[in-house]
Design a protein that fits this description.
It is built from 7 helices and 6 strands; from the N terminus they run βααβαβαβαββαα. With 174 residues, the protein is α/β, with parallel strands linked by helices. It has helices at residues 13-16, 23-35, 51-64, 84-91, 97-107, 136-146, 150-156; strands at 4-11, 40-47, 69-73, 94-95, 121-124, 127-132. It has a 6-stranded mixed β-sheet, with helices on both faces.
Length: 174
């Protein structure tokens, strides 16, 4: 049986040039390792802030690599180079705005600038794409908020069943 494949895509001009280490991608990996009881295989990409590159990698991770979930980090702010939500919209069949609404709501408890965040989520085929912010602390806060709905969403769209550690995360199934 094939392991569940999950994509982690970091969009960052500086990290992709080696200016600094991709701590955001690592934060997502660590959270998924703590949440998931399934064996899973990571498909990792680190790309510059380019709508074309991000969209191409999202398509590849889902259509070719068969990821059931792709979690992105970075590129969700208001700056001109922040284009991850646009790339996500470009490749999705259906958008799930509730993910972004919840993440912004949670982030507003910590910083007033959370209203500047534009993360979203959407479905491409049998895969879910979730955009997270770029800072590890914010990644944890946001992923903890939305993850309880992710396994059910993936099953509803025809993806695999994700089993989670109930001590770490309480998931909801319809």
């Amino acid at each position: 049986m094939m392991k569940t494949r999950i994509g982690i895509l970091t969009a960052s001009d500086r990290a992709s040039k080696g200016v600094y280490e991709d701590l955001s991608g690592r934060a997502i990996r660590e959270l998924l390792n703590s949440y998931l009881m399934n064996e899973w295989e990571e498909v990792y990409r680190l790309v510059p802030d380019s709508k074309t590159r991000i969209a191409r990698e999202l398509r590849s991770m889902i259509d070719k690599k068969k990821c059931c979930l792709v979690i992105t980090t970075g590129g969700t702010g208001p700056a001109s180079r922040d284009v991850t939500p646009e790339a996500t919209v470009a490749v999705c069949d259906k958008m799930l705005p509730g993910f972004g609404e919840l993440m912004r709501s949670v982030s507003l408890r910590y910083v007033p600038t959370a209203i500047l965040s534009r993360q979203t989520a959407g479905i491409r085929g049998k895969a879910l794409i979730v955009n997270l912010p770029g800072k590890p602390k914010s990644i944890k806060e946001c992923l903890e908020a939305v993850f309880p709905a992710i396994p059910d969403c993936i099953e509803l769209i025809g993806g695999p069943r994700l089993e989670c550690n109930p001590v770490v995360v309480k998931i909801y199934r319809a």
